[in-house]
């Protein structure tokens, strides 16, 4: 595995692949890697000739400085994991490399409308501007043919799809399924920060999402939201939202309709740690 810290070195190296018509797959991450991240790497290895992973904790997408400060960082372990998983190229830039002092990296001019106003957009002001800013910057450095991102961050995936569409970027976005622990908890870098008690409380998130699917036969979306929020509170979590949305465009729904897939998205705090998860609860 080649490890690059400077974008100029990475670009020079990739130019050679590109000139030989090798297709490049790209997996951007913030490190503290787990099997969910590796599943994106494997999806890229199955699709492209060469895979670039990046590890960069992007400061501009954190709306709480404590969250940025406490974000887990395990670079040595991450390098070993990627090397052992057969990753071709790892890009690990410093902040100055992604956001050079010489010029301002723009926040992409993309009209997101309600996509950025609901759920994570409402609860994490500025978050998606930071996500779009870093993803567009990394895409311009790597210029991949394929971009692999997880459905775990469903709203992020939807927004990046919209950014690619509006800016007519020549990259194919591949959404990959959420990997879970054997008990159902969605894998997340933040899970390592959970105390044993909060780790067992956090299970209520995936359990409630699974139950919400069975409630859809008898209850309305509003009733499901209410019941789910109560279940999360009873489990000792502090939910921020539990919303039901059209899986295509993230419009919030108040009825179930044939032909419209509905996804439930949740954010809840287990102690200090904020977790998100989602699940399709009405297949349409
Ligand atoms: P992060 O390092 O948290 O920014 O995540 C990097 C990429 O990994 C994003 O595209 C995430 O959606 C994806 N990802 C995070 N957790 C999982 C998971 N449990 N299963 C699959 N993909 C994931």
UniProtKB/TrEMBL annotation:
GO biological process: pantothenate biosynthetic process
Superkingdom of the organism of origin: Bacteria
Record key words, sorted: ATP-binding, Cytoplasm, Ligase, Nucleotide-binding, Pantothenate biosynthesis
CDD domains: PanC
Catalysed conversion reaction: (R)-pantoate + beta-alanine + ATP = (R)-pantothenate + AMP + diphosphate + H(+)
Annotated positions binding (R)-pantoate: 61, 156
Sequence positions that bind beta-alanine: 61
GO molecular function, one term: ATP binding
Enzymatic class: ligase
Active site positions, chain numbering: 37
Cellular localisation: Cytoplasm
Pathway in which this enzyme or protein is active: Cofactor biosynthesis; (R)-pantothenate biosynthesis; (R)-pantothenate from (R)-pantoate and beta-alanine: step 1/1
Residues annotated for ATP binding in this entry: 30-37, 150-153, 179, 187-190
GO cellular component annotations of the record: cytosol
Listed HAMAP family: PanC (MF_00158)
Misc. comment: The reaction proceeds by a bi uni uni bi ping pong mechanism.
Oligomer status and interactors: Homodimer.
Main function: Catalyzes the condensation of pantoate with beta-alanine in an ATP-dependent reaction via a pantoyl-adenylate intermediate.
UniProt cross-references to PANTHER family, sorted A to Z: CYTIDYLATE KINASE/PANTOATE-BETA-ALANINE LIGASE, PANTOATE--BETA-ALANINE LIGASE
Name of the protein described by the UniProt record: Pantothenate synthetase
Organism: Phaeodactylibacter xiamenensis
């Amino acid at each position: 595995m080649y490890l690059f810290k400077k974008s100029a070195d990475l670009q020079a190296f990739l130019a050679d692949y590109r000139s030989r018509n090798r297709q490049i797959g790209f997996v951007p991450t913030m490190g503290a890697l787990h099997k969910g991240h590796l599943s994106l790497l494997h999806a890229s290895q199955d699709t492209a000739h060469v895979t670039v992973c990046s590890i960069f904790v992007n400061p501009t997408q954190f709306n709480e400085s404590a969250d940025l400060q406490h974000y887990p960082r395990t670079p040595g372990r991450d390098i070993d994991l990627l090397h052992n998983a057969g990753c071709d190229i790892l890009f690990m830039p410093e902040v100055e490399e992604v956001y050079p002092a010489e010029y301002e990296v723009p926040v992409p001019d993309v009209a997101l409308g309600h996509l950025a106003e609901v759920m994570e957009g409402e609860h994490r002001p500025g978050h998606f501007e930071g996500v779009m800013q870093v993803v567009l910057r990394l895409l311009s450095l790597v210029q991949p043919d394929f971009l692999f991102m997880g459905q775990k961050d469903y709203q992020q995936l939807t927004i990046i799809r919209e950014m690619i569409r509006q800016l007519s970027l020549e990259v194919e976005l591949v959404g990959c399924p959420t990997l879970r622990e054997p008990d159902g908890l969605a894998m997340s870098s933040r899970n390592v920060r959970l105390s044993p008690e909060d780790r067992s409380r956090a299970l209520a998130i995936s359990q409630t999402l699974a139950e919400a699917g069975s409630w859809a036969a008898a209850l309305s979306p509003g009733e499901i939201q209410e019941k789910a929020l109560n279940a999360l509170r009873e489990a000792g979590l502090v939910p921020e939202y539990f919303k039901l949305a059209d899986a295509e465009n993230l419009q919030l729904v108040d009825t179930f309709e044939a032909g419209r897939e509905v996804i439930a998205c949740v954010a809840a705090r287990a102690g200090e740690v904020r977790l998100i998860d989602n699940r399709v609860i009405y297949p349409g």
